[in-house]
Amino acid sequence: MAMLTFFGTSDARGVPRMMCDCPVCQSSDPLNQRMRPGVAIQTDHGTTLVDITPDFRTQFLRYGNKTIPTLTLVTHAHNDHIGGIGDYADLCYWSKVSPTIVSTADIIALVAQRYPYLINARGMEFVAADHWHLDDWDVSFHRVNHGANGYAYGIRFQGKDGTWAYMPDSFQVASQQLAAFRSLDLLILGTSYWHENSDPAQRSVYDVQEALALKAELGIQRMVLTHLSHDIDMTVRRHDLPEHVEFAYDGMQLSLPI
Q: By three-state DSSP, how is residue 119 classified?
């Protein structure tokens, strides 16, 4: 049995946003206070991160249970998904832990450009791979459109007791890209807004209505929505979701396999 913990569930700007007076950003409800998006997977053999956010230090202190992740999978090289690598490197170095960071060759190259001082230093190993093995799961990286922000990768975990995927940043994903995400037991998908009216050419993440349509199209059994902006008021909107769809929140835990 494994456990997935949501270290953060916001969009790139966090909730509350800086200098924002909207009702969600001013809310005292903990469900409306979200850090940048990432998850931790705890198994009998250790802890694996998916993405290392700028909020990693706070996330680890709050949800890490003093267990240092020895493996990190990276979906893409945007700041809200890798901005905590420096803090992670310090944690591992001073704790005498040698971590491995895995992503596709293009993403590893971008990380190396942005954090050159960590390459071949502090005991960190950066591995370029589009397939990996984690406990009983075959892990694979699948490129998906990220709208105006280019592209990212969804990560698929296939095991004997179920198959699930984590795809926090995607928009207008092509049909051939969606093939890897059909008939999943669980899809964790990024949805920043309930319904986004802005120009599609300027967008980069699905909204909730599009996610619901995608669930039906792909035959997803259960969908958990993350990457939530300040447009999502959890005190209201969580009651508006259909069966087998829910919003993630910081600190939320799911048992795996599904």
A: coil
H or E segment and range at residue 46? strand 46-50
Q: If residue 138 lies in a helix (H) or strand (E), which one and from where to where? A: strand 137-145
Q: Pick the closest to residue 257 from 199, 201, 186 (CA basis).
A: 186
Please indicate, yes or no, whether the overall pTM of this predicted structure exceeds 0.90: yes
Q: What is the largest CA-CA distance in the chain?
A: 49
Q: Residue 45 has what pLDDT?
A: 85
Whole-Å CA distances, 202 to 28, 197, 198: 31, 11, 7
CA dist., res. 54 & res. 56, Å (int): 6
H-run or E-run covering 4? strand 2-8
Which of helix, strand or coil describes residue 250? Answer: coil
CA distances for 88 relative to 23, 64, 106, angstroms: 33, 12, 21
Cis peptide before 16 (omega within 30 of 0): yes
Count other Cβ atoms within 10 Å, centred on residue 106.
Answer: 15
- Token readout for 62 is 């709050």
Nearest by Cα to 247 from 212, 205, 200, 196: 212
**Cα 187 from chain centre:** 11
> What does the pLDDT look like over 199-209, one tens digit per residue?
999 999 999 99
